[in-house]
Amino acid sequence: MATSGLCVWLHKKIVDPLIQILRRGAEPKLLAFSAALGITLGLFPICGVTVFLCGLAIALLGSHCHAATVMLANFVATPIELSLVVPFLRFGEFISGGSHFPLTSDAFRKVLTGKASNEVLLSIAHALLGWLIASPFIMGILYLIFLPCFKILVHKFSVAPSSPNKSLLSQSEVMLKVRDA
């Protein structure tokens, strides 16, 4: 019962929106870039900030990214984000040569009581550094993985041509052809 509910939820929240995006006929390169961008920004190690980062990226990039794909990929990246906070923290500590932040119940208690503020801020900085260094590689690898996938998916699901050179006829052009026939 629980797995069928999960399948329905996944279909409704991820599969259906993805199929709608694909049916609109966007370029595979644009979709691959946008999905890679959304996931990369979605892995930002401060929870709750990723939506704003994606919104900012969409605003800055404009037509160079597909907004719906960026946001869908950001949504998909949320569980991955939570699982990568500690690896980003450790990577940042390694890169900077910083002290090892203890992830113990005592450290957690200090965080909750506000007694570890400098240590916590430093650990956040280390996690951000880890993400900042890893993110170009993550984005590049994801783009290389997504590009052939989106080429196949756009070809399979698109009802509109995927090239701007092969545009659909407008309604007025269709009406002219009907009148001429």
Automatic annotation (TrEMBL):
Q: Where are the transmembrane segments?
A: 30-61, 67-89, 120-146
Instruction: Give the record's keywords alphabetically.
Output: Membrane, Transmembrane, Transmembrane helix
Q: What is the official name of this protein in its record?
A: DUF2062 domain-containing protein
What is the native source organism of this protein?
Answer: Cannabis sativa (Hemp)
